Amino acid sequence: MKKHLILITASALLFSCGGDKNHSDENGNKALQDSVQTYLDGYNKKYQELSIIANEADWKSNTHIVEGDTVNATAANKAKEEYSKFSGSAENIATAKRFLEKKDELTAIQVKQLKSILYKAADNPSTIQDVVSERIKSETKQTEDMFGFDFKIDGKSVSTNKIDEILADEKDMSKRLKAWESSKEVGKGLKEGLVHLRDLRNKTVQALGYKNYFEYQVSDYGMTTQEMKEMLEKFNKELSPLFRELHTYARYEFAKRYGVKEVPDLIPAQWLPNRWGQDWTSLVDVKGINLDSALKTKDAEWIVKQGERFYVSIGFPELPKSFWEKSDLYPAPTDAKYKKNNHASAWHMNYDQDVRSLMSVEPNSEWYETSHHELGHIYYYLSYSNPEVPILLREGANRAYHEALGSMMGMAAMQKPFMENLNLIPKNTKSDEMQTLLKEALNYVVFIPFSTGTMSMFEHDLYAENLPADQFNKRWWDLAAKYQGIAPPTNRGEEFCDAATKTHINNDAAQYYDYALSYVLLFQVHDYISKNILHQDPHNTNYYGNKEVGKFIGEIMKPGASADWRKLLKEKTGSELSAKAMLDYFAPLMDYLKKQNKGRKYTLPELN
Length: 608
Ligand code: X8Z
Ligand code: ZN
Hints:
Elements: E1 2-3, H1 10-14, H2 30-63, H3 71-87, H4 90-100, H5 108-122, H6 129-147, E2 152-153, E3 156-157, H7 160-169, H8 173-188, H9 191-206, H10 213-219, H11 225-257, E4 267-268, H12 291-295, H13 300-313, H14 321-326, E5 345-348, E6 355-358, H15 365-384, H16 399-412, H17 416-421, H18 433-464, H19 472-484, E7 486-487, H20 503-507, H21 513-534, H22 547-557, H23 565-573, H24 580-596
Parallel strand pairs: 1-5, 4-7
Antiparallel strand pairs: 2-3, 5-6
Bound molecules: L-captopril and zinc ion.
The site of L-captopril has 8 residues, from strand 5 and helix 15.
């Protein structure tokens, strides 16, 4: 996820003088525009100052968690309060509203900034300061509780990297079950906090007229809850025939792998190579292409540096020195007296050049892909930190764009011609392309029911339907059965809170559809790049070193949120957001899987 509370300084100055090109409009009211600009300049400057302090404090409370030590949490809460008092102030809300009443007389970029001020204010309106303060405290605590948690197997502490490794490779079912159950223990202690946060999040945005927190987050796309749900359902439906084949295939293949004779209708969650069943990639090994074994000969630093080399090769700048000095990229030492947030994120500390990533990179294919993803956020930050983009609009064209471009680079960096070029696999490797496509589908297609369904519908019900606390776990597993076709190993009562084991439920609330949309978007952009820039088959591309590709991606990134996301997509790819490219990409798999699945029992309904 990307993190940025705040705005920055030096760049604010660029917008402070009247007459720059963002600040004149032949048809507008020049005097009014001048006073709006003065207001925006002042807002940006203050917003930036307060955000830097809050981001620094937040960074510390995510990278250095010590049980019982309240110093970091207290500092983070104080800084976030200061920030919230400003960004949610009655005065800022009133001023932005007043100016927006005359929006036809203002420049487009001024209107966008004023709307952004109101949007941000709704997340912490000072009219209900006590609710806002309580929410800040509870959010900091929830993150510390989540990432300060000590996972244990047989009484011994284990890292989440270790749990993931067991789930990816282990064949012994009793060991798998222990690892899976261990990974879910953290949820129990997070339930109460989640119930409380749901109420606080809903209350904060209700003060500015949103029905609930889900509606608030969706509105960032210019969409209603209903529209978003319909779009997610549409994408899920479109991909469902393929997912149904994959599900059938996986049930039988996993059963074979674990020596289970009777193939279950729903896949037991502990069979899957991911704590939430969102990625089944390791079910398939493609002969001749073993990225993991190549990466074993590298160290963790090589992984991140290689990501940078890729971006640099297509024309992006080297990362700022401070990125390497200030990021926190590798797992905490096993004997460390502190814990850290173990999920990957990218941070825009000052809305300018201070960019950092928080990861726990180990040399394996999963972190290789994730490093490319995080660097996508980082290069997005750097790209829109330019004088053309006001600080308030230094965000993605929408949140899905921010997630998509780095994921696309991660996908491109795992295609055969690219890996041959980097000597990660021998040149002229012979391999079965259908197996490669199957492995990719077990990543990208399998993710769609999880993201459009289980996660998004759970969060919808949590915020928009006020899901009762004694139904959290039941609803979670009902959705997992319906969308992903998976089941828990044993009945999981309400003492567990399995949804809360997923970080986004706690600290990236009501936004998980961003990732679903980002996958659809990434295939659309990749399809365009492959066919129109590289003139290569989308399944077998090599972006490395291609400056045209870099230019194209840079043009999507540069305007940040000053662009209209729908127009931008149309301009750059010629189409509206659509799953067509993703469907085309995986189409050859259908026949193959149908043959493999001949005579097998299908247990998911046909949706499409
Ligand atoms: O959370 C992430 C990123 C955050 S920047 C690593 N992702 C989702 C997840 O891990 O659940 C990337 C794709 C899905
Ligand atoms: Zn991300």
